[in-house]
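Table S2 (text version). Query chain:
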Amino acid sequence: MLTITDGAREKIVELIGKSPNPVQGLRVGAKSVSPLKVDYRMAFISGGQEDDVDQVIPFEGFDVYVDPESQAYVNEAVVDHVEGLTGSGFKIERPRSLPEGVDGDLVSRVQAVLEERINPSVAGHGGRVSLIDVKEKTVFLQLEGGCQGCGMADVTLKQGIEVMIKESCPEIEEIYDVTDHANGKNPYYQAPA
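Corresponding structure-token output:
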């Protein structure tokens, strides 16, 4: 079942109250990018934008509408409202489940390097690195936030991320960045002084 934290629910109710247009509810959708990554989207909807096949989940102050293709991913998700250095916003996450044939230990070790060593480093630039998949001895990553479109992304990948992952997981032979850097909305790059 979809979970919405108290902070997120209060913020959603506040935003609905401030909306100049009548709000029917909140649509939450999901699209699987890989077996390890799901992209979520949220939007307020007005009357007539709901669909008969939507799953309707009642919450205090609003209803959530979920299309059939998104239901499996949304039902496991947690919606939270977070405050950070670069602003505030909604975050939707779900427990990660490993696809069949993927070694849980290797995936866990790569994920631990990302969460404990790499993401704290790139967070200072508004960036984040997500694990997309692990196939045999190859890791597929996506650079997000300030890392997406950054002129230094390749250097960061080859001299930082790749080195740290291979140190912790020597069986990894290749690491690929599957990011669409051309669509980076806010790339971080600080020119030398």
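Notes on Table S2: The chain has two domains: 3-93, 104-183. The radius of gyration is 19 Å.
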